[in-house]
């Protein structure tokens, strides 16, 4: 983990001054923005900062892309063909731009950190005037100013060792929020592009994290998810003066905070202290998203994951011993280079043994610039597809088995949304351990905590009823 390079107050004040001057120029013009976010929670969180900065510059959120004066795509490069799809989306905006030539079209996010992608985009699409990477979001006011002055702007910071505190934010969700605790990643899993685009792992100061959580709770949010590519390595090598287990304790006693979540956990760094913290801190939720990726030791070694199947299983066993109602979710890649049928069988047997509540499953696809992309023994697509199908069938069976144990379960649900089916409004939300339940109720209960009993199962879902005193 690297020492963080904190962006100076002078630099942040300068950006703020530029934002204010843009806001003065925009006064009375009713300008709007539309930010479309692809990829993971990191990008969702980045978009909230971008939206906050745009608000400071006098923009308000547009309800649809077509009416916006500024459109920004926040991109992800983890999925295959993402670049091709993005190019299609950007090309389609040309017609809109021709009708509204003053508008600003920009692209940011992980894909723009990749070599040559932003340059290619600017060359190919004259209607794009702004491209920037993940580590320079704090400079958005300066970039917008330059675009307003007629420049086409490309900014990225390949060093990726900085942290900018105190940036504005505009969050859409009134009940739950993501709070970054680390940025970047040092793990270099052999299939993953993230360390190359998001830079070295660096930790925020614990006080900044706690202050942000406290401020969110004061604004009415009661569920916080601490975010990092590998939250368990928070503060490694003394870079934050606190370990992740200590940070959980430090943040969890913010008055009014009902649920504290975290993601993602890396099995190599999830230690006994963290497990004890989950077991003992009353508002730390009993759910761990613990990506396993493969159940075979040789494939894990080739993935550079730095844990074994047995180490993974021992974490699951220990946490279940300490926290009997804990639920695990995971990520799994099938068809990694060199994966034999026997190696895949190890993944299947691990899935069978653990009984994940749910799993994100993927067929391996090479990412340019990663070690695994250069491995010789790539697996044919048809085999990957077949393995993915078998894995998904097994996980679907395990999800149903996992659900079955919830019949009669009672607990508090945080209501996240509702569907109106016929005469009945169905609310949905999660128990603290991340299990989702559907139940009839009044839409006015949105964002509230409601006691719910599970009464039956429907395909992959839990159905319940409100418990009335
Ligand atoms: S821990 Fe591995 S998979 Fe996760 S972001 Fe870092 S390199 Fe990628």
Beta percentage is 15-25%
Report strand order across the widest sheet: 3-2-4-5-6-7
Sketch the major β-sheet.
6 strands, parallel
As a percent range, the share of helical residues equals 25-40%
Question: Would you tell me the overall average pLDDT?
Answer: 94
Gap from first CA to last CA: 51 Å
Q: Indicate the CATH topology of the largest domain.
A: pyruvate-formate lyase- activating enzyme
How many domains? The number is: 3
CATH superfamily of the largest domain: tm_1862 like domain
Can you list the ligands bound to this structure?
A: iron/sulfur cluster
Please count the beta strands (DSSP E, at least 2 residues each).
21
Low confidence ranges: none
Number of helices: 14
Radius of gyration: 23 Å
**Broad shape:** globular
**Could you say what the CATH architecture of the largest domain is?**
Alpha-Beta Horseshoe
The chain-level structural class is alpha/beta
Could you explain how this protein is built, in words?
This protein folds into 3 domains: 5-157, Rossmann fold (3-Layer(aba) Sandwich), CATH 3.40.50.12160; 170-404, Alpha-Beta Horseshoe (pyruvate-formate lyase- activating enzyme); 410-466. Helices cover 35% and strands 23% of the residues. It has helices spanning 9-26, 41-56, 82-92, 94-99, 117-124, 140-148, 194-198, 206-218, 244-252, 272-280, 297-302, 309-322, 341-354, 381-404, and strands spanning 5-6, 32-37, 60-61, 70-75, 104-109, 130-132, 153-155, 162-163, 176-180, 182-183, 202-203, 223-227, 259-263, 287-289, 327-334, 358-363, 410-421, 424-430, 436-440, 449-458, 461-466. The longest helix is centred in the last third of the chain and has 24 residues, at 381-404. It is globular, with a radius of gyration of 23 Å. The site of iron/sulfur cluster has 10 residues, from helix 7.
């Amino acid at each position: 983990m690297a020492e963080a390079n904190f962006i100076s107050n002078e630099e942040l004040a300068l950006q703020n001054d530029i934002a204010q001057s843009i806001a003065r120029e925009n006064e009375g013009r009713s300008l709007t923005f539309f930010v479309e976010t692809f990829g993971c929670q990191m990008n969702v969180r980045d978009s909230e900062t971008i939206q906050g900065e745009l608000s400071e510059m006098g923009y308000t959120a547009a309800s649809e892309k077509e009416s916006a004066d500024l459109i920004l795509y926040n991109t992800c490069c983890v999925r295959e063909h993402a670049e091709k799809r993005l190019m299609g989306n950007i090309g389609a905006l040309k017609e809109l731009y021709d009708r509204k030539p003053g508008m600003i079209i920009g692209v940011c996010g992980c894909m723009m950190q990749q070599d040559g992608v932003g340059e290619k985009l600017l060359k190919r699409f004259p209607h794009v005037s702004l491209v920037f990477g993940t580590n320079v979001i704090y400079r958005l006011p300066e970039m917008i100013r330059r675009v307003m002055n007629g420049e086409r702007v490309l900014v990225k910071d390949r060093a990726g060792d900085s942290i900018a505190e105190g940036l504005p934010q505009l969050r859409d969700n009134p009940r739950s929020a993501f709070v970054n605790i680390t940025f970047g990643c040092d793990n270099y899993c052999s299939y993953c592009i993230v360390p190359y685009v998001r830079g070295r792992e660096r930790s925020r100061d614990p006080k900044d994290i706690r202050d942000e959580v406290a401020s969110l709770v004061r604004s009415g949010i009661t569920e916080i998810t601490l975010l990092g590519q590998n939250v368990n390595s928070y503060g490694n090598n003394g870079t934050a003066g606190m370990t992740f287990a200590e940070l959980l304790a430090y943040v969890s006693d913010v008055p009014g905070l009902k649920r504290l979540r975290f993601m993602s956990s890396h099995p190599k760094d999830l230690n006994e202290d963290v497990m004890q913290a989950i077991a003992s801190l009353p508002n730390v939720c009993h759910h761990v998203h613990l990506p396993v990726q493969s159940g075979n030791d040789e494939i894990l070694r080739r993935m550079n994951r730095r844990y074994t199947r047995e180490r993974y299983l021992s974490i699951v066993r220990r946490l279940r011993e300490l926290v009997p109602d804990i639920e695990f979710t995971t990520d799994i890649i099938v068809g990694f280079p060199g994966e034999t049928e026997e190696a895949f069988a190890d993944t299947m047997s691990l899935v069978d043994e653990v009984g994940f509540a749910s799993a994100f499953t993927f067929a391996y696809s090479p990412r340019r610039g990663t070690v695994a992309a250069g491995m010789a023994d790539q697996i044919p697509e048809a085999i990957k597809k077949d393995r993915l199908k078998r894995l998904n069938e097994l996980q679907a069976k395990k999800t149903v088995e996992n659900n079955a144990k919830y019949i009669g379960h009672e607990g508090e649900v945080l209501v996240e949304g509702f569907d109106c089916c016929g005469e009945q409004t169905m609310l949905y939300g999660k128990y603290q351990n991340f299990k989702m339940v559907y139940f009839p109720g009044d839409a006015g209960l949105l964002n509230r905590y409601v006691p719910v009993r599970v009464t039956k199962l429907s395909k992959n879902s839990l159905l319940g009823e409100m418990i009335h005193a």
